């Protein structure tokens, strides 16, 4: 997933769009076809009722650039059915290995929900955790992101929403400083033909009383209408090792999609 440099504002909206001929929503193959992901392996896992491809490559590629591993030490589903994603240092090579999975099915309009375990609000400044829709091979378009990242700078806010347009240039985004109440949290976005709406929640709930940082793309923004794979990744900003030199692991208890 791409990254966007955020300002220091607690809440920022950037709105730039250029409307062109719209694309009808349709199912598309989930095969990674961009140069950055051309060497993705065919290894898969089953999680939350979906089949996910686990990314692996022999060299480095974006975002980052980073090394990506499908080792069971990087990506695995435990006996409870929970997905583990890990950044770890390989003892034999000294390389830091990152994790990414994406659905073999493309999903369109509807509600996307992730239940996460781990202090995503306390990640090292060089760690990025992403939950997103993405159409491979068209960087700068067709993407909806929830990202936990400081982009290498501890002074920058750690919670980010970004939506890239269907056509044209520019993105719509929001950033804030996240402080969780505990290790469990929930994240949601809702896609339709005219907007993408985001929200987070303390705990594994979508109760309004637990909600934080709701945000919707500005009226008239050129949101993507294309069905796309769902991605989750854990990676290193600019390919830099964690500043604290520690490995990191996050657990996704569930992912659900409810079509409109």
Describe the structure.
This protein has a 17-stranded mixed sheet that branches. The protein is built from no helices and 17 strands. With 260 residues, the protein is mostly beta strands.
Instruction: Give the uncertain stretches in residue-range form.
Output: 2-42
Q: Which percent range describes the beta-strand content?
A: 35-45%
Please report the total strand number as a whole number. Answer: 17
Helical segment count: 0
Element pattern in H and E:
EEEEEEEEEEEEEEEEE
Ordered list of secondary-structure elements with their pairings:
Layout: E1 44-47, E2 50-54, E3 60-61, E4 66-68, E5 75-77, E6 83-89, E7 96-103, E8 110-117, E9 127-134, E10 143-148, E11 159-164, E12 172-176, E13 184-191, E14 196-202, E15 211-216, E16 230-236, E17 248-259
